[in-house]
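for the writeup, i need someone to sanity check this before i put it in the appendix. the sequnce is what the collaborator sent (i think, or maybe the updated version? ugh). structure was predicted straight from it, no edits. if anything looks off just tell me and ill rerun, i have time this weekend
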Amino acid sequence: MSELDLRLSTATAQDTGSFRLLELPPELCQIIESASEKTASLFIKGHPTEDAVLCTSDKTYAVRSVVLSNTVLVVTPSRSDPDGTVHIRDQLHEILELVPVVPKLHKLSILLRDMEYDEGDEDRQAIMPKYSYDQARSEIQASEAEFSRGLKDRRILVLEGQLRPIAPAHLSTILELLLNYLISLSLSHQAAVVEELVSVLDDEHEIPRAVSNQVISWFGDVKEGLWKMDADAVIRELGIGILRHHMHNPISENEFLKKWKNVVGDTFEPAVKLSLLSGDYLRNLSSIGEEATLTYFPSSALPVDPAARFVELFLTRQRWKHEEIEHFLLDIAVNSKERDKLLLKHARALTDTEGVWYTARVSYNN
């Protein structure tokens, strides 16, 4: 091994604290090594009051500091003797590691408060607060793909460059109309002509094309002007539209299913099933033999902090079946492995003849 002469650089004083060592996970190394200069894009995002995240085109990583047991020297070759002398530029006592995290999309509901799009709200547009797509894109800690998916999942329209969450009741109305016109116009939900549906909604119900086009894109795939409807997604949204009115006053399961089937119509009635609403409702049985009731309990309304999420869950119910609680953790865990870690940390597993149950690790006062 060749020997090098270490010397302090004249720039050491001004360079101190200006270098950071970032450890890249294998998938990021592969992206950087295989991509050209124009396709490899990494962004650091975060408000001064937030922890920074690094975003690729489709993933978000938390940036965490890890203290090193040994000091790492940052050195550069000497200009006068590049083969034998290196100059010390800085000393590092920590590295930055990247850990996959869920995108921080929950801020959208706060930032877009009082900006809801509803039927006939044209008169309110002039006085309504505004939050643009570009502004949200730069401020929300999420990758491009996660951000786009978040707008779709949260039913947020982009109208003239501004973000507008659609009113749930208006969305239900549009979906019901779409189902009705699929039948009346004899269109297949596997290949419906988008222009025909958009035109009839505009002409007969004054629903702007920009709105109906986006709603259609949320609930299926559009290719070459044809809409392949995601029937389960449409049926689920209509079910939530009914259940949303029963957050504080439970509805009997049979009554709810009857209303739900009536809304989706005869064609899609066979596809109605409660499993489509997992993570958005609680099924209650007060005593053996009594009819089950349902309560609207959306996971999106629960705290995003894992510890607070589990407090809320166990204050609501003292014990949960595994197949029930897992649906209320999907939006705070990157994958099933991380979800299981959260359960191990915040809950205690018990097994009986009915299967696996989870109870709180600590006692909460109801």
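DSSP finds 13 helices and 17 strands in the chain. The chain has a mean pLDDT of 90.
thx in advance!!
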